[in-house]
Amino acid sequence: xxxxxxxxxxxxxxxxxxxxxxxxxxxxxxxxxxxxxxxxxxxxxxxxxxxxxxxxxxxxxxxxxxxxxxxxxxxxxxxxxxxxxxxxxxxxxxxxxxxxxxxxxxxxxxxxxxxxxxxxxxxxxxxxxxxxxxxxxxxxxxxxxxxxxxxxxxxxxxxxxxxxxxxxxxxxxxxxxxxxxxxxxxxxxxxxxxxxxxxxxxxxxxxxxxxxxxxxxxxxxxxxxxxxxxxxxxxxxxxxxxxxxxxxxxxxxxxxxxxxxxxxxxxxxx
Length: 270
What we know:
By secondary structure, the chain is of the alpha/beta class.
């Protein structure tokens, strides 16, 4: 049953949202009714899910097929040393429920692929791409565009981050910016090139803010632009994008009309 009002406890818990005139009780009720899918509970998914749970997003879907490894703990802050070898969706779900017991967690212990992604994404209002490989990033884009589900793309590597928000049918999609994945092994993975742990937090909180803005209708989203930053210099840059008429998935005459799997290779940024 969707909430229509706030309890006294919720008034206390979300008081700092309620005093924001742009959010208020109406915005908080929208958050409590919302359903957000977080794909990946690692470096990006950790801060995203923590902030969305704390904000009172009513239902969080968590997708991840991996277990917690000790090398994850340098940046994947939703997990702890006690969680080693535990499925990440279970580890994350426990922390999120501890932060906010009233939210619902829907764990998906699986790899997203062309056979299951469409059925999953259409159940949610907004999707967060917190993945670490190009195959899944492009698959998320194509599935969300086809289903008309808005999403936030994010990627990190070394000291760099990039993100954009996509409103299918209205704004540029990921393929408008990057038409196809790079050749396999053309880009090093985080395990090969490294990543500063705090960079994941910087980008993940931006993605969480985009989800909250979309749900509440507050502010301007990162649509038709790619936000990039270099944590070494703390330089942020916005690259303007446009919805391409010849985009293979969202263009006037799309050539990608069915979801397919491509070779899965580790990455983060293009």
